[in-house]
Amino acid sequence: MAAAAVIGLASTVGYSATSTKATSPAPMPVKESSTIQTLAGSPIVPALVTTSYSVSSKLVTVGAGFQPMDSAKTLTCPKGKGVCRIEADQAAQVTGGAGGSNRWAICTQVDGVFMDRPSCPFLGLVNPSYFQSAAFSQQQSAVSEGDHTLRTFIYTDTGAQLGNFSIQYHIYQ
């Protein structure tokens, strides 16, 4: 999870560089400095507002399609400071299921709509003989001030057994 946060942060942090004398072609422009920008354009580093966890070590049989992994959680984007970014760091183990083409995915909803930064990818095929695990992070930017309902789902084509899972929900402003 921390690696995903570092990768996400590294992809948004600017750089500074110096140029050396170039012959041909002309050198690229040098960016002297930058700051992390929110979607609202404020030159601030987003601060963590709150974190909530969902964790389970039970083995649960889930049906085909989208099935809830945890109970809905309400998190609040504080008023008076502008929009927030919500991040969901999800990890799960699956096994079982019928058929050789049983894909699976983990997807989180904010206020009943699946997060799209990025969309939920398939994490592989469920192996009926042993557990496999995967982790995935999603973000939703420009979330309005106020309360928001978060819930994570597992998707399978034909059903499976959901083992250990851990979900961390973060709100940044």
What is the element string, with H for helices and E for strands?
Answer: HEEEEEEEEEEE
- Fraction of helical residues: under 10%
Apparent shape: elongated
Would you give the CATH topology?
Jelly Rolls
**% residues in beta strands:** over 45%
| Tally of DSSP helical segments | 1
Radius of gyration: 20 Å
Summarize the structure in words.
Strand 6 and strand 7 form a beta hairpin. This protein starts with a helix and ends with a strand. The protein has a single domain, classed as Jelly Rolls (Sandwich), CATH 2.60.120. The longest helix has 9 residues. The protein is mostly beta strands. It is elongated.
Short description:
Helices cover 5% and strands 47% of the residues. The chain is built from 1 helix and 11 strands, in the order αβββββββββββ.
Compile the SSE list and pairings.
Blueprint: H1 2-10, E1 48-56, E2 60-62, E3 65-68, E4 73-77, E5 84-95, E6 103-110, E7 113-114, E8 124-125, E9 132-143, E10 146-156, E11 160-172
Antiparallel strand pairs: 1-11, 2-11, 3-10, 4-10, 5-9, 5-11, 6-7, 6-8, 6-10
Question: Which keywords apply here?
Answer:
173 residues; mainly beta; Jelly Rolls; 6-stranded antiparallel beta sheet; 5-stranded antiparallel beta sheet
